[in-house]
Write a structure and sequence with these properties.
about 450 residues, mainly alpha, Amino acid/polyamine transporter I, 18 helices, globular, transport
């Protein structure tokens, strides 16, 4: 099999690019409000356990599949398990990425709009009623659709030319800057009056507020925040050098992801309690709390603008990985024009995202299983399709993928190969599938 695929220029470039793909809306936008709705500290602790034991194991698995096949998601399963039904795992990943993008890009559009408003000084200038501004952005149909279109346009332009050089090079500078500005926000948030009440809510576990559905959300969040389950990382790792240490690279991404989730919680919840807001505010939590925090800082408008731009980049790098799995599925071996596929994909995702974009306005009263289009798609993707995708990937790598190839990919550059290989195989064979099945059974008992 000839291999014409590009490779990441360095291990650091791969880790930062993969972290950029994972660290986006999942860790910065979704985590704070999902944690706020599900018990705070108890949810965070369960999320960490799931991320370390299951999310990390899944990330290693997708890296092994991608680098082992050196192909994008659908072709990877065809290569590793020819003439079998396992290719459906890759196809489900493409479908899942499409559905995820249909609401992810809506939020990305909000970030684009807020970035523009912040640079022009219109966010903090709105005064203290940040909820009204958010309601205006999300509830006015043409504003929401413009945001969605602009966000997708950026994706289409970048992915039309390929993403390796731009993303990898930019991540080396912008990801560290994102951490720096996050730390600034955390420090400022912790100095607000009443901040410690928010810290206790976030870091002091209270399991009386945890439900079976909350545990399911924690599992789904661990998958969502690491971008595993839809084989996105299969595509990314197909460009990884054969000599790189997969477990170490995956561990670095997981540590960065948990750290960003910690920073997000410490940045958001102290402000929530300081300003008397509701921690279970929902998807708008970040967009109402960030302006409130920065408005209390010297040069707050400048800091808010810079942070939103960096947040926009983190959001884009995640959406790049999602759209890339769709585009690469149709451009493998240069069968089709990448630019044309990127444009068509962008248009289709835009059309699919219209119901989610209007879910906070004219379609707010339209319900699917008691949820808006936005919430129903989010629930389907995060709590059903992602766990199922992880379950199938676990079964594939343990029971179908060639064990010799698995061992070779896992142990490359790993001095603790025998120990960690045994631990990882045990987790993938027993802990991952059993946990997913038990959580699903518990979820079904809720209805």
């Amino acid at each position: 099999m000839s291999d014409q695929r590009e490779q990441w220029s360095s291990k650091l470039g791969f880790i930062l690019s993969t972290a950029g793909a994972a660290i986006g809306l999942g860790a910065i936008w979704k985590f704070p409000y999902v944690a706020g709705m599900n018990g705070g500290g108890a949810f965070f602790l369960i999320f960490i356990i799931f991320t370390v034991l299951i999310g990390l194991s899944m990330l290693v698995s997708e890296f092994i599949i991608g680098r082992g096949a050196r192909r994008e998601a659908i072709t990877a399963y065809k290569t590793l398990a020819p003439q079998s039904a396992w290719v459906l795992v890759g196809r489900m990943g493409v479908l899942g990425c499409f559905l995820l993008l249909s609401f992810y890009c809506v939020v990305g559009g909000w970030v684009v709009l807020y970035s523009g408003f912040a640079i022009s000084g219109k966010v903090i200038a709105e005064g203290a009623d940040y909820g009204q501004l958010f309601a205006q952005v999300t509830g006015t149909p043409w504003i929401g659709l413009i945001g969605l279109a602009l966000f997708l346009l950026i994706n289409v332009i970048v992915l039309s030319f390929g993403i390796k050089n731009g993303i990898e090079r930019a991540n080396k500078y912008l990801m560290p800057l994102l951490f720096i500005f996050f730390l600034i926000l955390v420090i400022r948030s912790l100095t607000l009056e009443g901040a410690m009440e928010g810290v206790r809510f976030f870091l002091q576990p209270d399991f009386s507020n945890i439900t079976g559905e909350g545990i399911l959300y924690a599992l789904g969040q661990s998958f969502f925040s690491l971008a595993v389950g839809f084989s996105c990382m299969v595509t990314y790792s197909s460009y990884l050098n054969k000599n790189e240490n997969i477990p170490a690279a995956a561990s670095s991404v997981v540590v960065m992801n948990i750290f960003v989730s910690l920073l997000a919680g410490l940045a958001i919840f102290p402000v929530v309690f300081s300003f008397g807001l509701e921690p279970a505010e929902g998807p708008g939590l970040l967009f109402m709390v960030l302006p409130a925090a920065f408005s209390q800082m010297p040069f707050g408008g400048l800091f808010l603008s810079l942070f939103l731009l960096l947040f926009l980049f983190a959001t884009l790098t995640s959406s790049f990985s999602l759209l890339e799995i769709i585009i690469s599925a149709f451009t493998e071996n240069n069968k089709r024009s990448r630019a044309k596929v990127a444009l068509i994909s962008g248009i289709v995702v835009f059309l699919a995202g219209i119901p989610a974009a209007l879910s906070f306005g004219v379609l707010a009263d339209v319900q699917l299983f008691g949820k808006t289009f936005f919430d129903a798609t989010d629930y389907l993707v995060s709590n059903i399709m992602l766990p199922l995708g992880c379950l199938f990937i676990a079964l594939f790598i343990v029971h179908r993928m060639d064990r010799k190839l698995v061992n070779e990919e896992f142990t490359a550059g790993n001095s603790l190969s025998a120990v960690w290989l045994s631990v990882w195989l045990f987790l993938m064979k027993w802990v991952v599938p059993i946990t997913i099945i038990v959580v699903f059974i518990n979820m079904l008992g809720l209805f």
